[in-house]
Design goal:
The protein is of the alpha+beta class. Helices cover 48% and strands 21% of the residues. It folds into 2 domains: 133 residues, no CATH class; 94 residues, no CATH class. The strands form 4 sheets. It has a 4-stranded antiparallel beta sheet with strand order 2-1-3-6. Strand 7 and strand 8 form a beta hairpin. Helix 2 packs across helix 3, helix 2 packs across helix 10 and helix 6 crosses helix 10. It starts with a helix and ends with a strand. The C terminus is likely disordered.
Length: 239
């Protein structure tokens, strides 16, 4: 059974950290110490933290491209990604600081080779726990995706009156709109979006396109609507 008080505390901590510094992510891990060895332990009496630079869409795109290669298989082009290399580059690119007594030294946006050698001496399980916690801040879980799909169906449906208790994706989509073609968000702005926000907007944009195609096939002209705060919409005054 999930301890709801702990889950609520973790959510509150994450959100408050983002308010303080939206460009960084603080990952906390419960640990135990055995001499000089530190390892994750959900019942541990101590806590260590790592601070990562927020993973942007641009960061993820460049790192994934650098760690992927194409080859032919049965006459098809197949892309294979080395996820271990992705994690290594993520540490070098995004790890900024932590509570461990090993300095993290960075130059020109990357961890120095010498610093990376020192960081690499940290126990693998602890480093994995930090990285897993970091990547979870960008993930969209299965249950969240179901909520997004359900609310998108309401938002983009005919005669929609908006969404009550809009989820993060709907709020974000209605606030920022649908990327460059609608609101002039340029390539630089897009690459600088936090990866999670990009994924949420992309998902909402796909849902809108799906509903537009369905309406087009029915021969109906969708009513032009303006998105308001919290996912609520109203007819366009210029339509």
């Amino acid at each position: 059974m999930i301890d709801m008080s702990l889950a609520a505390e973790e959510i509150a901590r994450r959100e408050l950290d983002l308010l303080v510094d939206p460009d960084s992510v603080r990952v906390r891990v419960s640990v135990s110490w055995d001499g000089d060895l530190c390892f994750p332990d959900i019942r541990g009496e101590h806590e260590e933290f790592a601070i990562f630079r927020t993973m942007t869409f641009g960061d993820n795109m460049v790192i994934e491209k650098a760690c992927s290669h194409e080859f032919e298989s049965d006459g098809r082009k197949v892309t294979e990604t080395d996820f271990n290399e992705m994690r290594r580059l993520t540490i070098k690119r995004n790890l900024v600081d932590w509570s461990l007594d090993i300095p993290v030294i960075r130059e020109n946006g990357w961890m120095t080779p010498e610093s990376y050698l020192s960081v690499g001496k940290v126990s693998a399980p602890l480093m994995e726990a930090f990285l897993d916690g970091f990547w979870k801040t960008s993930e969209i879980g299965e249950e969240e995706e179901k909520v997004i799909t359900r609310q998108a169906t309401i938002l983009f449906g005919n005669n929609s009156k908006g969404v009550m208790d809009a989820c993060e994706a709907v709020k974000l989509y209605c606030t920022l709109g649908s990327f460059s073609e609608k609101f002039g968000i340029g390539k630089k702005d897009l690459l600088g979006l936090p990866l999670r926000e990009y994924l949420l907007l992309k998902m909402m944009s796909n849902h809108e396109n799906d509903f537009s195609r369905r309406n087009s096939k029915k021969g109906k002209t969708p009513t032009t609507r303006i998105a308001g705060p919290g996912g609520r919409i109203r007819p366009s005054r210029s339509g």
